[in-house]
Task: structure prediction
Amino acid sequence: MSWKLHLLVLLGVLAATLCRSENCELVMWTEPPAVLSGGSIEVFCRCNSSTVGWQDLAISDWQNLTVETNRVDDVTIKHRKRNVIRDFTDYLYCRLQDVVVTKKYMLIVPLIRVEELRCHFHPLQTELSCNFSDANYFVDNKNYFLSINRSPSVSCLLKTHGNTFHCPGIPTKNIYNKYNLTVDMEYKGYNQSLQLQLGYKQVLFPEWPKYKMHIVAASRHILYLIWPSPFDPPDNDNMEWRVWYLPQNPRIEKYLIQKKMYLRLHPFYTWYIFQSPSFAHQTYKLRMSRRYPFWESPWSPEIETAEFVTEARTPDRPPKFLPNGFFHQPENGNLYVYWLHLDELEFNGPNFTYYVSADKEKTATILSNNSALFRDWDATKPATVAIWSENSKGRSEFNRELKVPMLTNSLRHQARNLWYHLDNQSITWQPPMEQADLVGYTVSWCPVTVNSLPICDDHELIQFKVLNASELRFQFKGSMVLPNIAVTANYMNHTGGGMQWHSRRWMSRQDYEKVSSISLYLAFAVIVVLIAPVYVLIRKLRHMAQIDVDVPDILFKSMDPNKECDGRKRSSFVQTAVPGNFSPKAVMNIPTLPTDSNEIIYSQSDANSYVCMNQKLSTTTIGS
Result:
């Protein structure tokens, strides 16, 4: 019976609690009903019941944490919230004996905060439009209105993305020195206003002329932007420009300048002077806008120029020779020189090439963009080879020189026994015979060209690496079977023997003689092996040419279909057999043949052909 007693006690307590709850009507309210963001608000909770005291009430926040409250009367408590901001925690909850019964929303009105106000007004229009951003995080439930100089206000529209509002079509009839703007914000029935003031140069953007614009590359550093009418007032000399330089060559990066441009007035033209791009003979466009010199002033709509080409000029520099970049062929007197081709952006003009001469007397033949050839080179004298870059504007102001020593004893100053190792993609060599004043080596490599004279494909740069005198091996990053490779011995006094090429086209004289002798032996062996088969073939062809075939005068004769041949009856449908490889002239009128003629009968029986001969046939003679 004890458990029944405990159950009755619990049911009694629960019933009493429910009765007290039903008799208590909880009410929450705030004072004031709404508060501006950053202000203070009081939240009240009351239970209209004589059986509930203020000690049974509590107020909690959205995290169910009890906040500080004060007693107002026997059935009422309040909580004061300071520095309120609008966020996701705008609700407070009233609890009766730790049970949440009701909640109250605190209406927090965000302050009007307008940023980045920009207004645009065209002189030929009677309406002004503005844009601004709401600096608050929340922009929902807000309605903005804008008016100028007490004109009727217009509604502002929230753009699709972000917190930017656009206010179009604000009526204005005149250009004022000052524009008084009133921005009104309505939020859930509560209104706020903001007064702003803009000067006319902050509202009026500069007008672009109606005439066609011309752009002229006047010099290396100057561009002229020209309109054929003096449209701008004098104060436009003080305007700020924003100009994008847009190169048409993808290797050149676009860039932006923002500065004041110099204005030159003319009775019939207006000239603006711009800085020219640094790359010569390149195609560009300009995209630009401008504004009056105030930070709040609006930028004018962008316009874009037609394409123009910067002024061509002579190349800025000559190319660089490879270290000891020459190769001598004593057997024919040819001397090749090699350099690093300039980048296309350094051409500075059309018809780009190079000019190479020796001691200002002998001119080389330009083979490619990285090599030239001197014919009939005098190896008994040292010489200086000079190179210039050249285009349609002329040659570069300066040149570069390559010292070529006397080459009568050049083999003693050349690296020896060049050997490329396929297993580890490296090249090795032996030091030259003459090692006095030897300071190192230069390993050069380049792609093979299809041309038979220059050895390097000029679509790619010749690559090289300078090594110390103690280094007799160079490791490549990949296979170098196809590219040409050269090793040059470098001396302190420029007495090197030039480049030694390791390729199928160029080799040392010893290697050339070795390969030539091997080729002769191979050719002789091939001839000996082929003599016997050729002789037998010729005799066989001569024997076949002596075969003769004699066709008899009388080849066929008609036979009686009913006549038997060797006990067989001839087939009725076989009249005459004409061999397909004989001329039709062999077919004669068989009935007119003499009776003593030979008879040849082709008969078919059971799909098997046979020949019946009653008399002797003419003899077929085959010559031997």
The CA atoms of residues 440 and 469 lie 4 Å apart. The chain is about 10% helix and 40% strand. The chain has five domains: 22-109, 114-203, 214-309, 320-507, 547-624. Confidence is low (pLDDT under 50) at residues 5-22, 505-519, 555-559, 569-624.
